[in-house]
Amino acid sequence: MLNLSPDDIQAIKLSLQVAITATVIALPPGFAVAYLLALSNMRGKALLEGLVNLPLVLPPVVTGYLLLLLFGRKGWIGELLDKFDIRIIFTLRGAVIASAVVGFPLLVRSIRIGMEGIDRQYIQASRTLGAKWWDTLFTITVPLCSRAILAGMTLMFARSLGEFGATIVLAGNIPGITQTIPLAIYEYTSTPGGDSMALSLCLISILLSFAVLLIGEAANRSLARR
Q1: DSSP H helical segments within the chain, as ranges?
Q2: What positions does the domain ABC transmembrane type-1 occupy (predicted)?
Q3: d(Cα 37, Cα 80) in Å, to the nearest integer?
Q4: Each residue of 4-44: pLDDT tens digit?
Q5: Between vectors from CA 214 to CA 184 and to CA 32, what angle results, nearest 5°?
Q6: Are 113 and 163 in contact (CB under 8 A)?
Q7: What's the distance, Cα to Cα, between the start and end of the chain in Å?
C-alpha cells in the first residue's frame, strides 16, 4: 500500500504543475523552431539544430549549471529580471525553466519529423491559390502534423515528470516549493529508513508516466481516425 506524506502529495502536485507548465510554454517556440528546421530555407540550420539538441547530449547537471549562470543575479537574464524583482533561482519558475529546456529537444524533434513528412505539393498548391502563409500554416501544416505535435508534447511532459539534474541545480530541493517527485525520491534514498517512502513515490512516478503514454496513444489513434 502506498505510504504518502503531505510533503509527498505536494511533490506530486508540483511535478504535474511543472510538467504541464513547461510543456505549454515550450510548445509555441518548439513549433516555430521545428518549422524553421523542416520547412524553411534559412541559413545556419545545422547550427540551430545543434543548439536545440545540445541538452540531449549534455549531462543535466551541466545544463542546470549553465542555466544557473544565465539566470543568477549576475547572469545576463538574471540581472535584467532582478530589476523587475523577478527571481528564478530556488523558485518554482526555475523548476519549470529547467524542465522546459531539457525537454525542448524532444518536442522539436517530434514536430520536425511530422512536418518533414508533409507533401510539399499541398503547401505549394495552397500558396498558388493565394492563401497567406498563416492560412497555409493553420489549414495545412498544423492539421497534417497534429499527431507529431501530440507525440512531442507527450514525450516532453513525460520527460519533465522525471527531470532531476537541471532542476536540483537551478531550483534546489525545497519541500513544498521546488521539490518534485524525483527530488523527493533522492532525498528519501539519502535518509535512513526512507526506502519505503522512496518506493511509494517510484510507484506513483511509474503510474503517472504510464498513464501519460496511454492517454497520448489514445489521442493519437483518435486523430488518426479523423
Answers
A1: 6-39, 45-57, 60-71, 76-83, 92-116, 120-128, 133-136, 142-144, 146-161, 165-170, 181-189, 195-225
A2: 12-216
A3: 30
A4: 889 999 999 999 999 999 999 999 999 999 999 998 888 88
A5: 85
A6: no
A7: 41
Enumerate the domain spans of the chain.
Answer: 6-225
Residue that is written with C-alpha cell 545544463 in the block: 63
Residue appearing with cell numbers 506524506:
5
Dump pLDDT digits (tens) for 41-94.
888 888 999 999 999 999 999 999 999 999 988 888 989 998 889 999 999 999
- Strand, coil or helix: 152: helix
36-41, Cβ contacts within 8 angstroms, sequence gap of 24 or more: 37/108, 37/112, 38/111, 38/112, 38/115, 38/116, 39/115, 39/118, 39/123, 39/141
Task: Look at residues 100, 123, 103, 117 and name the one whose alpha carbon lies nearest to residue 38.
Answer: 117
Look at the block and give the residue holding cell 504518502: 4
Write out the CATH class of domain 6-225: mainly alpha
Which residue has 502534423 as its cell numbers? 145
pLDDT band at 1 (very low <50, low <70, confident <90, very high): low
Question: At residue 28, what is the residue type?
Answer: P
Per the structure block, which three cell numbers stand in for 198?
A: 522512496
Residue 134 has φ and ψ, to the nearest 5°, of: -75, -30
CB atoms within 10 A of CB 3: 10
Q: What's the grid cell of residue 15? A: 511535478
Percentage of residues of the chain with pLDDT beyond 70:
99
Give which of 111, 211, 106, 108 is closest to 163, Cα–Cα.
106
